[in-house]
Write a structure and sequence with these properties.
The complex is a heterodimer. Chain A is an all-beta fold. Chain A contains no helices and 11 strands. In chain A, strands 2, 4, 5, 6, 9, 10 and 11 form a 7-stranded mixed sheet that branches. A 4-stranded antiparallel sheet of chain A has the order 1-3-8-7, with no helix packed on it. Chain B is mostly beta strands. Helix content of chain B is 0%, strand content 53%. Chain B is built from no helices and 11 strands. In chain B, strands 2, 4, 5, 9, 10 and 11 form a 6-stranded mixed sheet that branches. A 5-stranded antiparallel sheet of chain B has the order 1-3-8-7-6, with no helix packed on it. In chain B, β6 and β7 form a beta hairpin. Chain B is globular, with a radius of gyration of 13 Å. Classes of the chains: A mainly beta, B mainly beta. Chains A and B meet through β4 and β5 of A and β5 and β10 of B.
């Protein structure tokens, strides 16, 4: 099993560009989530999903969209990148929100 | 007030020392708690779950105090390899603390 995979590992964008961060898991987990981690800070929840077709906002959802068309995939879309979105983005999955979460290796995003 | 607050740290301890971290949470209805370890901004990995009865795994002990709404992590006989950032998590709402950085020195 690959666990949770994320692509790309690194990305540089210009202000105003859009892009999609990919996340996939092969553990048949219903719960998936996206976090961002800024230097010296913990993880902040952006969006989460409790199953295919169901998504909801986390603590810091502005500027991001998600969809969950399959159990395996949970892409995160940046609509119009801003320098404030420079961060490390982690995707995670678990059997449920109250269970252990397994994290992907992260995407390091820089917005110029 | 943040939903989850951790000891700010950093903690710098010699090898062999015992060190403890605390983490307070604001939602008294919270049911599930975890400690994760994060190395050099790599992905967090589960260290241990926190049960009402406490949980021990080798040199690591996690405790839950519902009355005072905090969880703790005790590390005995610290090793150089324990140097990392430790994150407490209140599951359900997936709320992470900001992390406590531990550096174990020779």
């Amino acid at each position: 099993n690959a666990g949770v995979t994320q692509t790309p590992k690194f990305q540089v964008l210009k202000t105003g560009q859009s892009m999609t961060l990919q996340c996939a898991q092969d553990m048949n987990h219903e719960y998936m989530s996206w976090y961002r981690q800024d230097p010296g800070m913990g993880l902040r929840l952006i969006h989460y999903s409790v199953g295919a077709g169901i998504t909801d906002q986390g603590e810091v959802p502005n500027g991001y969209n998600v969809s969950r068309s399959t159990t395996e995939d949970f892409p995160l879309r940046l609509l119009s990148a801003a320098p404030s979105q420079t961060s490390v983005y982690f995707c995670a999955s678990g059997a449920g929100a109250s269970n252990e979460q397994f994290f992907g290796p992260g995407t390091r995003l820089t917005v110029l | 007030r943040k939903e989850v607050e951790q000891d700010p740290g950093p903690f710098n301890v010699p090898e062999g020392a015992t060190v403890a971290f605390n983490c307070t949470y604001s939602n008294s209805a919270s049911q599930s708690f975890f400690w994760y370890r994060q190395d050099c901004r790599k992905e967090p990995k589960l260290l241990m779950s926190v049960y009402s009865s406490g949980n021990e795994d080798g040199r690591f002990t996690a405790q839950l105090n519902r009355a005072s709404q905090y969880i703790s992590l005790l590390i005995r006989d610290s090793k150089l390899s324990d140097s990392a950032t430790y994150l407490c998590v209140v599951a359900g709402k997936s709320t992470f603390g900001d992390g406590t950085t531990l550096t174990v020195k020779p």
